[in-house]
Amino acid sequence: MLDNNAVQGPTQAHTSPGENTEEQRSPETLKNFPFPCNSEKSGSSVPPKSVHSVRPSDIKFVAAMGNVETPPDSRTVNLEKQKWTDRRPQQTCIEVVTVLSDLIRYFNPSVLRPLCVPGKRVVPHPGVEDWRAQAEELVRSMKEDQQLDFQNDWKLINVFFRNSSRDHLCPSTQQQRHAAGGLDVLAGALDYLHQEVPKAFVNLVDLSETLMVSPWDQGTQLSPTAEPCRDSGETSKLSKVVTQWSYQESWDRLLASSKYNEQESFAVVFQPAFYETPPSSLLALRPLQDPSTLALNLWNTMMKPAGQKDEPFGARERRPVTCPSQENPYLFTYKNSNYLPRLPKSQERLEVRDGTEILCPDKDPSDTIPTSVHRLKPADIKVIGALGDSLTAGNGAGSKPGDIVDVLTQYRGLSWSAGGDHNLSSVTTLPNILREFNPSLRGFSVGTGKENSPGAFLNQAVAGDRAEDLPVQARRLVDLMKNDTKINFQEDWKIITLFIGGNDLCDFCSDPVRYSPQNFTDNIGKALDILHAEVPRAFVNLVKVLEIISLRELYQEKEVSCPRLILRNLCPCVLKPDDNSTELDSLIEVNKQYQEGTHQLVENGRYDTREDFTVVVQPLFEKVDMPKTSEGLPDHSFFAPDCFHFSSKAHAYAASALWNNMLEPVGQKTTQHSFEYKINITCPNQFWPFLSTYKNRIQSHGSQLPCRDRAPSASTPTSVHTLRAADIQVVAALGDSLTAGNGIGSKPDDLSDVTTQYRGLSYSSGGDDSLETVTTLPNILRKFNRNLTGYAVGTGEANDTNAFLNQAVPGAKAEKLMSQVQTLVQRMKDDHRVNFHEDWKIITVLIGGSDLCDYCTDSNLYSAANFFDHLRNALDILHREVPRALVNLVDFLSPSVLRQVFLGNPDRCPVQQASVLCNCVLTPRESSQELARLEAITQAYQSSMRELVGSGRYDTREDFSVVLQPFFHEVRLPLLADGRLDMSFFAPDCLHPSQKFHSQLSRALWVNMLEPLGRKTETLDLAANIALSCPTQNEPFLRTPRNSNYTYPTKPDIENWGSDFLCTEWNPSNGVPTSVHELRPGDIKVVAAMGDSLTTALGAQPSNSSNLPTSWRGLSWSIGGDGILDTHTTLPNILKKFNPHILGFSTGTLQETAGLNVAVEGARARDMPTQARDLVERMKNHPEINLESDWKLITLFIGSNDICHYCENPEAPSAGEYIQHIQEALDIFYEELPRAFINVVEVMELAGLHQGQGGKCDPPLAAQSNCTCLRRSQENPLELQELKQVNWNFQSGISRLSYEPQYLQREDFAVVVQPFFQNTLVPLNSRGSVDLTFFSEDCFHFSERGHAEMAIALWNNMLEPVGQKTTSNNFTHSRTKLKCPSPESPYLHTLRNSQLLQDQAEAGPNVLNWAVPAAAGGGLVLGVGTMMVWRVVRGRRQESLPISLNTVSF
């Protein structure tokens, strides 16, 4: 059985051990080989007594016996021509032990000259006696060596043998017998050494591998007593490396328990000499290792613990010398290696339990057998087959842990893609899943066996096969299906799964041309071509080659028990290269090219030329993460005992992943499968229950989320700026029909169904199904936090239970948003599923589309200013009441997009109903002024949103932020191949988005949420493949201004205080009206004004001299006419838009150009009659005014000086006298002026001026210096209260003038009180201080900006009905705040045309609304003008000389 050599006498090296020369310190055999070990620290101070503590430095003598050489093959080599001599074996042996001795000399310079005792070169049947004779000769030589202390010196003895019968290729049970027989033969030598030699470490070195790599004779035949090896016929690489390992394990098991390892002074250790398996084509060409390399490899093997000698040798390479470690400095024995032999395995098969269950409601086949593969349901499948390698053949799938030899067993019944053992409840495979839909499925494999075994059936995968072998497999599969009488080859639908490539990658480095990506793809194509040409009704799964690099993690983890000899031999090109090496980079790139080539092969439509055949790439293995245990180690329970093939557990996970891939839409398939979660079997979509193909992918609306890190913050964040997706607990939404989900799920021709609110499919709040089938923001967030709540499901109204926190209402406009917010807040507070104060919330707001649809019906109601106010009020409530919230404010869909879709498809869209659906957007003609106004107001809406968010108003709390998500700003519509719009993105009404559109909205919103401010995507390309982004390690948070390091851009300097004119109704009446109640703005011919310095526009612009402030009458809010409306907002400039020929306005600063502005600085109410007479005279004397026929507009504003000085005289005029003076002026007009409309503006409220604000206008206060009563009120609370009372009495008295009967008698005369000054918020800047840009240099009068705001407020009041007029002014800059007359209400409002009931008119106005000033909380709600001055005047004293205002009055 074992070859030895007949004794020919010992041979000793010529080196003299007694000389410590430099040459000896650097042996000739190793002088060019690096020696990395630190020999100075490797020695033991006292020679050890135990063999288990022997270090290399303790060895004094190295010897060998046996034959290191392999004889030539007499049948193939001419022995006469070979120069074989009797010295060749001895020479090889001595070279090996000399190198070993030289290695030891680095640790122990006094090591003696080595000895080799080879025998005769050829012995046909060596036996016990032959080996004993060699042992006797060796012992005799050692005893005769005078330099060796035979009893006390430690000796390293190497016994070289070889298994000439190739027993190491036998199965495990035979190997065990042959190893035992081999040990019996060697016993002659080992027994003698054990008995005679003290202090000996014996290496039993098996050189059987030389028979596999030499072209010479494979050795003599087995001895007659040896039982022949019953070869299984398996010749694959897998078989070879598994039996190699088993052979080594058999020897280790025998020796570890033998008598040779029972003494403290003697040990025998098996040292295998296995080689990396070369490609079969190169097998016969590999030369023997040279003696030096063999010796070095033997040394390295000795440095590894017993049972872990699993690093195969390289035939052509010298690997670095392994050094004794500090932890383990000894030569390894079975004892100090803590070797535990693997116990022989029971012959019982492993009980497999990797089942699951499937609870799909619809398991029925199609009503009729489908003719198209694109309409194929799982239950329609009748036949299943598979092609591939050992991963499909099922090698080791059912093997027990540790039973490595059993990996050779092909458990085809457990194969993930073709196995049919048991049923789904115990074994998860693709066939067992399909049998839940069709119990009559055929073709699956059962039990164990090769591809030609009866149980294999249509699983024709072959262990060890590569892509080049696939065409043969495909040919065999087709023939089997054709010849099976139980398969209707033409009619039955078939699923064939093809998975190949692992072996190609493992051997790529050995032959890059043979295993090139191009050849790999071409070979797969040849197999698919056969199937495509010959197999009808087939759905082919082409599974991408797995990302094989993860195998390195398992191989390199020393804490995991894996047979590395097997792994390295099976896959050297993956496991052999060093980390970060070019070889490894090359392999990774080839792996990717294999995967990409697979896609390119299929996605060009090559296999979609028939309706009944398709190939679909299933990418479940594209990215593979090594499954881990709870300790973070690779989980080897997913692998067979060889740590290379799949266990039944991994087969189960792979089967479920393949099944799920088959249902996922192309382009959205899962490419990264987690093996650490519970197996999940997806059910077919009830709306689209077909297997997904390239042609039917359009019907699915799911998405793939590739994010690996889905963990929440370590602790619940307290800041919105450190908020992760997984921290979100609650999702909510507000808006109109787009958010409510109208028509999302409607069929293309079902217009009436658009009224159905598919809230469960809504982009921002829907929670139907899962992300795999329905893409919505909640379904994305549920991938991070499965406990998310708040989302809507199904259909229904906002108040339905299933709507939950989707409180959007179809048709809702911005004015109703506040109501939605209030309802939402209450729901969150009341619902037990929401922890209102602790849960983080995402609230998405989209509003504005409905406002634009009705804008033209009432441009005042739907003005940009009102839109701004409504949006601000709603967000203010959220900001004030909702803790821990991130609000997404989403742009609305541009009206131009709606027009393009709706009007561009008259055959499909209900064009006749345009005026009903969205009148102001859909009915204007192209290039019309109406359309231009619509575009302007749209931009104004969008600008107001940006202005509101950019103001920083909602960034004052750490746990709250509003972020504008601008992806909707520009929409690119999808086009079909013929250039027409793809209407599948829209509901049947052509206005609402379909589910396809909503899916894109969801993806775009999610991407926006992760993009930093300043770099957010503002374009939505509906045809684009929008991939779901992932939070990154460096940027894990949902983005806010702060965590984006973003500063909102400062507003550009405003060049002027003009306004944009957006009105579409500006024509005058068809004829000059005779009734003031039918007076249009265009009918006004004359404008006039009276009052005090606020009407003369004192200080409206900075003064160029140190003189007293100038009156800029041309800029006066009520009468100025300088410039045009685009640059100067005044009432006359507004009226010029309606009538460019209006008369009476002021220009410049001179009295001569004052026009009909009769206001005087310092005037009080008592001066109004005088001003009235002056005004009448000017009108009568004006050459261009037709007093009788021209309509006149007169604005009267007085009272501030009356209030400021009422306390100086105890008999000062009361509120009654104040009103009486005004009435006297009005009476003059009533008697003298025909066709007149009189604006009486309520006096400002001054009582709040006692509260200081600070700033550049420090005391002496300008206001107080001329407002005696205001100054006194600072010192006396009673006087302050009295000041308030007087102010209120003045306002209350004026407010009744609109209802005075004496002014209601004439048809051409009206007095209308304009109350915009009644309650006015103090304008504040971004720092919360009073905004001084509204005031003149004296911090007392209005600047041009202030006059512009007053003009806007007055104009808007004039267009509001009496009883519904705005009683406050919004001091925020916008060029679009001007209201417009509407077709329904084109007139200036009077009491009569405001349609107040007679009893209301008689009753007079309601009690004044003091709610705003009363609730001023912080003193920020004050009147404008003088009442602001006290708050802002303080700071000026420090910056410039105080201004003398002794003569300045209102």
Which labels suit this protein?
1450 residues, alpha/beta, six-stranded mixed beta sheet, four-stranded parallel beta sheet, elongated, disordered N terminus
Total DSSP helices:
39
For the biggest β-sheet, the strand order reads 1-3-2-4-5-6
Radius of gyration: 48 Å
What is the strand tally? 22
The percent of residues in helical segments reads 25-40%
Shape estimate? elongated
Which spans have pLDDT < 50 for at least 5 consecutive residues? 3-7, 15-27, 70-87, 211-235, 278-288, 344-350, 1248-1256, 1258-1264, 1397-1450
Give the rounded overall mean pLDDT: 83
Strand content: 5-15%
User: Structural class, from secondary structure content?
Assistant: alpha/beta
The main sheet comes to: 6 strands, mixed
What is the distance, rounded to the nearest whole angstrom, between the alpha carbons of the first and last residues?
126 Å
